[in-house]
Write a sequence for this structure.
């Protein structure tokens, strides 16, 4: 099975230091919806693993978060594709949960859902916590320069990290260059 896991804020949609608190603030990065749809139509299952501490902080509620994800699904469906499992961590940094990146709990949830191994699965993010979560479960860390990506790039990266300008470039690599597939 060809599984690709994406971080959300800064990869699919623009991020903000003030958090993404409403559907109106949830604005796709140029080319990201098309990229997900193209991947989906090319046989890839595209899942999402996103930290959403804004829930714990009281900035928005689960209904609003679900509305953002319904919007994502609607836009991708409009391009003939579909979005797979979306997993989020609603906890705050001090709650010690197992799902908040850089912990790999969400990636493991996705792998269990699809009954695949994570080794070699590409996980695309914009923050160091994304890359660390990928490394923790032997998946392939992929950094995009959108969102916090440029800032992350200025720091230290896992040596095996692949770097792309944006999600559209990741999709082009996977679709047109038959990159390694999952097991
Ligand atoms: O990139 P993903 O995982 O999809 O989501 C990140 C968001 O949950 C927010 O994560 C926060 O980090 P803290 O959770 O406050 O450490 C900040 O970085 C916000 O700017 C950002 O919008
Ligand atoms: Mg992000
Ligand atoms: Zn959590």
């Amino acid at each position: 099975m060809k599984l690709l896991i994406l971080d959300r804020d800064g990869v699919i949609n623009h991020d903000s230091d003030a958090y993404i608190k409403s559907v109106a603030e949830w604005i796709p990065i140029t080319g990201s919806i098309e990229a997900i749809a193209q991947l989906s139509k090319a046989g890839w299952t595209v899942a999402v693993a996103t930290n959403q501490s804004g829930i714990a902080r009281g900035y928005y509620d689960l209904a609003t978060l679900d509305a953002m994800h319904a919007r994502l699904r609607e836009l991708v469906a409009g391009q003939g594709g579909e979005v797979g499992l979306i997993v989020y961590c609603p906890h705050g940094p001090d709650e010690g949960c197992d799902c908040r990146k850089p912990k790999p709990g969400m990636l493991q949830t996705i792998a269990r859902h699809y009954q695949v191994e994570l080794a070699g699965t590409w996980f695309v993010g914009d923050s160091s916590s994304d890359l660390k979560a990928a490394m923790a479960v032997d998946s392939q860390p992929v950094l995009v320069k959108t969102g916090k990506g440029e800032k992350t790039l200025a720091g230290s990266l896992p040596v095996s990290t692949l770097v792309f300008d944006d999600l559209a470039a990741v999709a082009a690599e996977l679709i047109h260059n038959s990159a390694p597939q999952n097991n």
Remarks:
- Helices lie at 32-41, 53-56, 62-77, 105-114, 128-136, 149-153, 167-176.
